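Bit of a strange request maybe. I'm writing a small parser for C-alpha cell strings and I need a real example to test against, not something I typed by hand. Could someone generate the C-alpha cells for this chain?
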Amino acid sequence: MSEQRRLTIADLPTSPRLTDVPAPRPPPRPQPQPQQPKHTPGMTLAGKAVKVVIPLDAAALARLRPPEGLPRIVLAVRVDTRVLTVDVAAKSLRKAIAVARHTGAENAVAFIQGKLVADTVTEAGIVAQPKVQKPEPVPA
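Reply from user aminoacidic:
Good idea to test on real output. This should exercise your parser:
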C-alpha cells in the first residue's frame, strides 16, 4: 500500500489574516450636480424692507387710555405667541382711539403699518377708519 501522508497545520498553505489585507474600496460615487429646487427661482433680488400691516382689535384700541404730554408711545402688540414692539406718534394713536370710540368698535377697523425688523415695527403708524357699509341690493 502506498503510504498516506498525514497533513498537519504546518502543511496548509498560509493565507494572510483578514486584518492584514485592506478591504476593497467601492468605486467612487459620481458627485451629483447641484440642482436648484423647483420652487426657487433662478434669480435673486435684494429687498429693501419687510413691510407689515397688523390688523388690530378696534374694541381693545377704544379701551386704551394713552398718557398725555408724550410725543411718542411704545405699544406691545401680541400676535399669536409673538410680542412686537411698536413706537407710534401719540397724536395718531389718540386719533385712532377717537375714531374707534366715535363709530363704535364694531363699526371700525384699525391697523398698524410699518417695517418689521426682528421683533420691532419701525417707522410705524396707526390708523382707525369707519367700516364702509355695503349697499343694499336693489330688488329686480
